[in-house]
Amino acid sequence: MRYELYYWPTIQGRGEFVRLALEDAGADYIDVGNASDAGITEISDYLDGESTSCPPFAPPFLKAGEVIVSHVANILQFLGPRLGLAPEDEATRLWAHGLQLTVTDFVAEIHDVHHPISSDEYYEDQKGVARQRAEAFHEARLPKFLDYFERVIELNPDSGDCLVGGEHSYVDLSLFQVVSGLRYAFPCAMERLAPRYPGVAALTSRVVRRERIADYLSSERRLPFNENGLFRHYPELDVA
Q1: 211: domain range?
Q2: How are strands ordered across the β-sheet holding 28-31?
Q3: What is the CATH number of the domain that holds 16?
Q4: Within the chain, what is the greatest distance between any pair of CA atoms?
Q5: Predicted confidence (pLDDT) per residue in 157-172, tens digit
Q6: From the CB of residue 62, how many other CB atoms can be counted at a distance below 10 Å?
Q7: CA distance 234 to 114
């Protein structure tokens, strides 16, 4: 099957979590937003209900044949078993889905560091509040989430560098993406915190070494982090 990923062009954003799973599995897919000049029009047609009677609220969404799936965690729960990136038993699949939803919460808090008031306003219009939000994020929320994922890895009875069971899964890819984004956005803070999270570091290092992921990360398909995406590097918000 050829999958169609719909996400805004030129930024990794939330679409990157889906791209990583598709790339890791060697799936046949088209990145619609970046494939042609008509990408935005095609995305808008779905959002406006012109291409489907069940319009998604926002990208990313995935088209698989006649099936349209929206929201990152929902897409990955759908793709995981099909791509060999999810546990086989139902209980563990639900555990993986719960971890992915926690990643969703984490990503939302990271985004809100640089846009604490409104996503519709420029960062420059909320810099003062963003600095306050950054201080609170670095003091409490960043270590809280990283502590949690480190503990999950430590408590995994089957593997020392996987989140779920003894096999690589889509949740490992998502945590890798979050850590990569954090290292871009907050390099000083992440360098300071790094010694506290050897399990997280081992997981991200393992993901980078996966053959298809390594090829993807060195290709033009991997869009660079930038100040229009989820993870943005503003030095004044990198509270060490």
Answers
A1: 90-222
A2: 28-31, 2-6, 61-64, 67-70
A3: 3.40.30.10
A4: 51
A5: 777 799 998 899 999 9
A6: 27
A7: 8
